[in-house]
Amino acid sequence: MRTLLYDQHVALGAKLTSFAGWEMPVQYEGVREEHMAVRTHAGMFDVSHMGEVEVEGPGALAFLQRVLSNDVAAIGLGGAQYSCLCAEDGGVLDDLFAYRLGGDRYLLVTNSANHASDLAWLGRWSRGFDVAVRDVADRYAMLAVQGPHARVIVVRTLAIELPARMRVTAVQIGNRPALACGTGYTGEDGVELLIDPEVAPAIWAELLDAGVVPCGLAARDTLRLEACFHLHGSDLSPERNPIEAGLGWCCKEATGFLGAEAVARARAEGTSERLAPFKIEGAGIPRQGNPVLAGDERVGAVTSGSFSPSLGIGIGMAYLRSDLAEPDVEVEIDVRGKRRAARIASKPLYASPTRKEN
Amino acid sequence: MADASYPEDLRYHDQHDWARIEGEQATFGITWYAQDNLGEVVFYDPPEVGAAVSKDASYAEVESVKAVSDVIAPLSGEIVEVNEALTDAPERINEDPYGDGWLVKVRLSAPEEAGALLGAAEYRKLLDS
């Protein structure tokens, strides 16, 4: 599949890759330039491959409280919240943002690879609730505009008001109804715009003219890894529960969500492994699948690994034995047969100096 | 990054490596196509001087932000010099893949292997196919 911006990506000389069935831009000018543009200025990502699900009806809150791990009742009108979608055994089926668009109307933004299975899961568990679950992925193109200058440029270029962080506002973009969300996946300030696909090429061009740097999925991955945001399929999976993934903060077992019992047990008893970020000390770039060693013992495996353009070193996240998953613990990473010294770090691996909370 | 080029004086391996043969010795590197596909190189892990390299086998690694790639030896021999400057400036592999971005110098053990390598025109044809 192609997003409505495929021609724009090709015109900009993007290298394309297949991602969850979509032909998506990996990079344009270069990963490092794009990464640093988001850290210092403003970059934009076509993330139209992400899925959208609308949940509406008198039973919307009760239903979402049942399927999402966080306390959905805490989302006020125009609010946003991060959640896990858990199976009965606590395994993470997906991680997603829920936006409250109206009194009993919510929008969920899903990972593209999980969109179809999420829809089936939501449909199945919605029985018995007075609620409609609709696939509205075709209704939106999604542009993430991120960086310290992102908001200023979006406001000036598109002449709209933007919501605060973790809020969503209904706006007009390209003379069509759109949603502006104060969320992102880069560790920088910025917005995610859900717009009418038909106006996406024109809006993309306007932002490009305003100096926003087009960025591909490769930079999106290095940015999110520096910020220690999870990537489902790498750091999260149905085989891992939110507690071992370090996502206990978005699980409110008292709401009785699907999987709450398993999550409560994992929280009370601890898990044998936990996800932890680490930095390589010296040379070497860790990659997904590299073993983590303590002495000669294999104590875990890397789930995300890359060169960090901001820090100039190899960084990653790994599931490892829980007693070792603490900041400053020294381990080694087996990078293709070479042992590289690494130190467990605290989150985030890189903190934006310019980002303001709200 | 410079435009695509494939100098006539080099011999090419189909895994996108080049050799500049000077008598019993040769300089190895990766082609413009290889560095362009890899993207900006951020790490070069060179072999040891004195190590043996075998034609068609990996002798080093180059990594971009997004991927790691084995570097394949176009010819067999022994490493006599590695490009130490790349440790601090691996981006030279992108900027000048046939010049400052050379990877190793090798004393050839079987110079006749060069007969199996491609000329610039043949390599270009391979890229176009």
CATH architecture of chain B: Beta Barrel
The oligomeric state is heterodimer
Please identify the top-level CATH class of the largest domain in chain A.
Alpha Beta
- Largest beta-sheet characterization of chain A: 6 strands, mixed
CATH class of chain B: Mainly Beta
Name the helix and strand elements of chain B from N-terminus to C-terminus, one letter apiece.
EEEHEEEEEHHEH
Largest sheet data of chain B: 6 strands, antiparallel
How large a portion of the residues of chain B is in β-strands, by DSSP E? 25-35%
What structural category characterises the helix and strand content of chain B?
Answer: alpha+beta
Fourth-level CATH superfamily of chain B: RNA polymerase II/Efflux pump adaptor protein, barrel-sandwich hybrid domain
For the residues shown, what is the average pLDDT of chain B?
94
- Order the strands across the largest sheet of chain A as they lie in space: 10-11-12-9-3-13
User: Radius of gyration of chain A, rounded?
Assistant: 20 Å
Radius of gyration from the alpha-carbon trace of chain B, in angstroms = 13 Å
| Strand-pairing-aware structural class of chain A | alpha+beta
